[in-house]
Every structure is written in C-alpha cells, then in structure tokens.
Amino acid sequence: MIDPEPKFCHQCGSPLTQEIPQGEDRLRGVCKACGMIHYVNPRVVVGTVIESGNRILLCRRAIEPAHGKWTPPAGFLEVGESTLAGATRETWEEARAEVEILQPLVSIDLTRIGQIHIKYLAKMKSDDFEAGPESLEVRWFDYSEIPWDDLAFPVTHWSLRLRIQDRDQGSPHFHRGTLQWNQQGSPLDFSNYDLSDLQSWPLDIEEGNES
Ligand SMILES: [Zn+2]
Questions:
Q1: CATH second-level architecture of 43-202?
Q2: pTM over 0.70
Q3: How many helices (H) and strands (E) does the chain have?
C-alpha cells in the first residue's frame, strides 16, 4: 500500500527501470531514454483534534479508505501550504468548522507507507459545524464515549490515546513516534502496531479546560 511508484518518466513518458543509480543506496525509477531519476518521498497528512470541555469532534468518513469510520478531520498537505494552514483547511472541508490551533499534539511517522501525520490540538471559533462532502456525519463525543472499535486508522487510535493520557495527567505534550506494523495480522488493526520509539516533550502552556 505504499504510495504508487511512477511507471513512466515524468519528463519524456518512457517506461522506467528500477535500479540503484550510481552513488546512491536504494532502488529508484530510472529513465533509460532521458536519464531522469524519479524520487518518491513521504507525504504529509495534517489534521486537528478539536476539543470543547470533555468532548472531541469526530467525522465519519464518506470516502475510502475506512468508509463509515470515525476520525478527527485530516488530509494531505498541499504544496504552498503550512502544516497549520493545511490542518485548518482540512477541518473546514470535512467538518465545516472554523478552529483556532492551540498546540502541536503528535507527529507520527508511518514509514511503511511513506506518510507523516501531524495533528494539532484546536478549539472551535464558533459553535457551527456540519458534514462536509467527505464526511457522512460530524458530531461531538465525550472522551468516555469514543467509538474505539470504529476509529478509521491505527494513527487515529494512537493519537487519541496519547491525548487522553495528557488530559488524565493534566500535562500537555508534543509526542512523536514511528508507528510500526508488527508484520502480522491486519495493517488496519491498531493492536498490530507499536509506537516503541515514542518521545514526548512537555509543553509550557496552560491546559485550558474551558467549559
Ligand atoms: Zn525520460
């Protein structure tokens, strides 16, 4: 499920050959016709964990993958956009919610599929929200009622688990880690992953539990 390798040259359209270019250490798509080397690099997914008191705003996905499952709003960062602007835009597109970013929450590397997921903690600027075109439904969940068995992705599960840990301790952190599949079972089941290289840095901010 890695991001698609290009099969044809972006420059001249000839088929690519997979080989290790001189001076490099891994396979690349190389064009024998024009010599262009095609690099495939990770993509960045940005999103928000929106809280109000003890509640979190989740979207039920109207698109694959994970159609019908719940997740905080998130999507691919666009060229020309900061991660903060991208997270805010995705939140508008999926939940029609205007938010203020409060702190960085997680940066989780999914090395297996070449993605970096950055989530910011946020709060609503107004009470208004509704399902955008990529959501079936958007609603508040109390943190005690999170639909754990119907969350969209392992990265969703781990992000919320880390946030709950911070809330329970009354101590906000920025967390980073590599989400690694243990090579067994479904790659969509969170329990087949670990985040063993997790690092958490405390943030010197007030934990605002506004009601
Ligand atoms: Zn070419």
A1: Alpha-Beta Complex (3.90)
A2: yes
A3: 2, 14
